[in-house]
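Reply to dn_fold:

You asked what the input looked like. This is it:
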Amino acid sequence: MKKYFLVRAMTEAQARNRNQLFPFNRSLCSSSNSSDLALKNVTKSNFEPALAELRIHVREADFVSFDLEMTGVTSAPWRESFEFDRADVQYLKVKDSAEKFVVVQFGVCPFRWDSKNRSFIAHPHNFYVFPRQEIPGDGPSYEFSCQTTSLDFLAKYRFDFNACIYEGISYLSRSQEEEALRRLNSVCNDESSESLSSSKSVADTQLVRMADILFAERMVNKIGEWRAGLLRDTNEGSEFQGSSNDTVQKLQTTFFKMRPALVLNALTSRQLRLIELVIKKHFEDLVYVHATGEISCPQPLVVYTDSTTDRDLLMREIKHCHKKEAVTKIKAAVGFRHVIDLLSTERKLIVGHNCFLDIAHIYDKFVGPLPLTVEEYVSEVQKHFPYIVDTKVMLNSDSSFLHLVKKGSTSLSKAFTLLCPQIASPSVSSIVLADNPHIKVEVQVGDKRFSNWNSGAKHEAGYDAFMTGCVFAQACTRLGIDFNLHAPPVDLVHNEKLQKYINHLYLSWINGDVIDLRTGKCATDSLGSTNLKNRYPKILFSNIVILWDLPSKLKAREIKECMSKVFGSDSVTSVFHLDETAAFVQFSRQEFVSCFLELKDTLEQKYDPISVLHPLSKILEGGRTRAASYELYKEICSSPISEVLFSNQAEAVGIEWRTRLLEPVVEVEKQEDKASTFSQDQDRKETSPINNAAGTLSCCHFPTDELVDSFYPVQAQLSK
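and this is what came back:
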């Protein structure tokens, strides 16, 4: 409920500020001054002509840039991207975000090279998108989350919530459309169903009220008289002459598919159900039809058939009409997905900025449910969008770009300001432009073009898509691509200088992981990662344990000190807090993971004076601390549940035990860690905690009444 009040408050504030409900005056229009040219907004009221126009521009385009605005990014603080996130975990977090939040604005901007004027022609479009139930009955009903920081960000940049909610373009994904058609065909193939429009509640309608009984008896008489009149060759098309004026107004004769029919006017839904019940019970040669739309009858009818064969023929005709009408509604509900189908069908080069999450949203909203693994996901994405470029990868993968943007300043707005000063700041001096070679970009409206266009609509998806395309065009120029040497259309997809950037996207900007969509493999961007302030040494996921339900206010330094007293001063390389309730601990050796988990379990089972005095007692204080290997973290991230605190998340997922070791089915490490120095030889496997037949640990001893070897560093025991 708070979300609805929040949206309402912001939208009302906007309406007061702008003195209007919808910003329809912001559409593209001819103007002599490019600064007066507003961004073209597309809603459901002007979607059809805008789509027809966009089809032409996309087919002629050399590349298409895009951008999205969403209702949120992370559903819980611990679901944010961390340096300790493995590639498969990073994908699960992106998947969770795409599934929980929705796209409210979609920017598309086709770019076409004009060799005659030596400039790119851009056509920015800003689509308002909003999911709503367009198919009546069993159609999909949407639920989504809102992140207050994201809504506040949108409101700050004058996002029109009214236009989005009231006029936003709805959509069906491909899988939703297929499911709707499948259900429709299933109903149509059910021979026992007389009509798609027949009320499902008719069979449950009972004559229990006196008013219902009297009305049903009156209808039996009136319909019976009408039928008798037909059999006496009453004049076709004449009104039924009843005994009351009220009946004359409600019952009128017409024709439906060349058959005489009785029109039912001014009746309630319950009265119509009672009439349908009367028809089924008392009249074998009459059929109740209630259809809407231009294809079928626009109102309820009682139709006369002269034989069983004629009755069956009528029912088949009605079914066909209803199916055709239902298919038309389903196709109409596809909505904004027509834009996605256009981009997919034309197989153009798609350009985004830090766009892995954007692509996940596109797949989830307009294609189908996101696959469970990143390998399956990239394979599916390639089928629909075979050529994608991430401008953030371009800017961070070339030393000349990093020098230009002064390291780290690769956000879209900063890159646009530095690479496209003639557009971002039209007043920039010609001397500055001479020192920075640039490609001219113009915005075309009708038969007029506008140079140095700056709508001032930063962080609107349409303008951000325009900025992304401009940055890409300038980056291509700096890579040595001379557009003047290419006749339109420019084949950027097969350009040698772009091959190392195509289909390489940042899976996580935090740790510099770049995923190759063609193979599903991840590698660290060596240049880009130098900009990141890596606070931790090389991460080895098999060496990590995760702790949660920790004692309150326990610091990372204190956790490391406790571990070091048991396993040695160099045993812990790093400790990282996910939130106030959970932390990662990375050991220097993989064996310490199982040793710690076994030791923790033993100490908690004994709980004697020796256990209380153990160095780990500070971590285990209160008896609530839980621990597991890294694989459990992945398991928890895969859950659709999102509690605010990690400890609550683990409880909601159903984890009741205190200690657990999960061995990965396939060891997944960062690409640079695959050649780890911790390869296991056969002797070590035979003595590992998992493979030891005797069930005892070779790396440490546990406290007993006679011996407390675990007070001594395990590292010393391992050296023996």
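The CA atoms of residues 199 and 273 lie 7 Å apart.
Hope that clears it up.
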